[in-house]
Amino acid sequence: MEEKKKFKLVSSKKTRYLLPNILTLAGVCLGISSIKFSIDGNFSLAVTLILFAAILDALDGRIARLIKGTSEFGKELDSLTDFVSFGIAPVFILYFWELNNYGKLGWAIALIYSVCCVIRLARFNLTKIEETEGWKNNFFEGVPSPAGGLLILMPLIYELTDLNIGLNIKNFTPFLTILIAILLVSKIPTLALKKISISPKATVFLLLGIGIVFISLLFYTHETLLIFGIIYFLSIPISILIFSNRNKKNLEKISDESHEDIL
């Protein structure tokens, strides 16, 4: 008798590719859903969904590398998801919240941001780092799209908090959106922290810090996001300084090695 073939959605050898891609698809669903809730006027939930999409975006790539489930398909899927979740959804939320009050100019600003985001993602996919410059893996070229998607929502996030500094933050929305759009396509180095070594002694403190962050996001979501946004802005000049120092040391090292070869 012939052995009955069992139905399999994917080959058993490729099941490890499923989890990262499922997380990626979940992220795009969250991004699209945030647009729906912003149309309904539920901006608090819309912002929260973008936050969850950013968390999933941070997890899918790391999980894929951890279980050796990286693939070209996953890479392309991740880029398309990033464009929807962080290039379209956040700026649509802003448009329904404030930018629509500026008429055609508001829509133009929304388009500019989305175009800059898709250019940034296309450039990221084509970026290749040489082995001699492996240290650059800890830096992004320009602001990454998930960070940009959350940063342009800072005025809305501020409005959702109970803070009051006596300023009409809504007036800064168009200018901040254009600024972040420029930072997306800029070549300013920003911290990526993809390959960072942590000593075993510091692991406990790292886990404690992560726990505190999640608790803060759970009970003070918008206030925590606002603080993170401010910290990220402040980290950009620090990133530029660290990148310049590392690049200078790397050039000096290459120069010394070339000099030794000549001798």
Helix/strand layout:
Blueprint: H1 18-39, H2 43-66, H3 72-97, H4 104-126, E1 139-141, H5 145-151, H6 154-160, H7 173-185, E2 189-191, H8 200-219, H9 221-262
Antiparallel strand pairs: 1-2
Helix pairs in contact: 1-2, 1-3, 2-3, 2-5, 3-4, 3-5, 4-7, 6-9, 8-9
Please characterize this protein's 3D structure.
It is a single chain. This protein is mainly alpha-helical. It has a domain at 86-254. Helices cover 70% and strands 2% of the residues. The protein has helices at residues 18-39, 43-66, 72-97, 104-126, 145-151, 154-160, 173-185, 200-219, 221-262, and strands spanning 139-141, 189-191. The protein has a two-stranded antiparallel sheet. The termini are far apart.
- Give the % helix: 55-70%
Number of strands: 2
- What is the C-alpha radius of gyration, as a whole number of Å? 21 Å
Going across the biggest sheet, name each strand in turn: 1-2
Strand content: under 5%
**Main sheet: strands, sense, barrel:** 2 strands, antiparallel
Global mean pLDDT: 84
Note the overall shape. Answer: globular
Can you write the helix and strand succession as a string? HHHHEHHHEHH
Unreliably modeled segments: none
Oligomer: single chain
Number of helices: 9
N- to C-terminal distance: 76 Å
- Counting helices, strands and paired strands, the structural category is mainly alpha
